[in-house]
Structure formats: structure tokens, C-alpha cells
Amino acid sequence: MITGAHILFYSTNPEADREFFRDVLEFRAIDIGRGWMIFALPPAEAAVHPGDGEFSETHAGHQMMGALVYLMCDDLRVMIKALAAKHVTCTEVDEAEWGIKTTIPLPSGGELGLYQPKHQTAI
After folding, report:
1. Which residue from 93, 86, 84 is spatially nearest to 113, judged by alpha carbons?
2. Can you give the pTM of this predicted structure?
3. Could you tell me whether strands 111-117 and 70-72 are parallel, antiparallel, or unpaired per DSSP bridges?
4. CA-to-CA distance for 68 and 90, rounded, in angstroms?
5. Backbone angles phi, psi at 119, to 5 degrees
6. pLDDT tens string for the chain (123 positions)?
7. Nearest CA-CA partner of 37 in 28, 45, 29
8. Which of 19, 26, 29, 80 is 20 to 30 A (C-alpha) from 38?
9. 91 Cβ partners below 8 Å, 6+ apart?
């Protein structure tokens, strides 16, 4: 039986991004030693999109599928304002048929997706 999902974020500045997850996004975390933090995430859903075969990571010689992470919210504009109060400037809002979206810049220079779905969700 599958009991959960563990998402790996590859960062050029993991310490700063860990602090961001803990202090800005306010995700609960445990420290399993030497500052290595494991974060509890909100409920999740997954969708399988077609890809071009160029977006992947290798593990033990096996090609893993690529993935993007979008955090979900009920009101994107309210969330953007809450992040701005913590000195985080999201990218411009883009509207798609399935929802409105932006990205959250991380201290490492990477970005996370953030969106308000227009469709029914699995959660």
C-alpha cells in the first residue's frame, strides 16, 4: 500500500530554500540531523501531462520522469498579497483555461508554481 509521496527539490542553495519553506511558506518540518529538514506538505493531487522526453532525472541508472510542483490556493490574489507582506514578489499572473497562476521565487533562484484552479480538484 502506498502511504504518501516524497517530493525532491533540487536547489543550488538548499539551506536558504529550507528556511524559506519553513519561515515564509510556514510548512511544518522535522530536522532529521545536520539541518536536513523534511517538510510536511498540504494535501496533494497529481496529473499526468504529455512531455517531450527531455525533462527527467536519473536515479541508479534509470530515467525518472520529470515533474513540476504547483502549490494550490483558494484565492491567488490574496496569497500573492500575503507573500508580498513577507517581502516575496511573485511573477505576473497568467490566466489559463484551468486556472490562474504565478510563480514564487526561492532564495536559490528556483521557482515554485502557485495556482488557483478553476476546475474541480481531487482533494
Report:
1. 93
2. 0.86
3. parallel
4. 17
5. -95, 165
6. 888 888 989 999 999 999 999 999 999 999 999 888 999 999 999 999 888 877 778 889 998 888 889 999 999 999 999 999 999 999 999 999 999 999 999 999 999 999 999 999 988
7. 29
8. 80
9. 102, 103, 105, 111
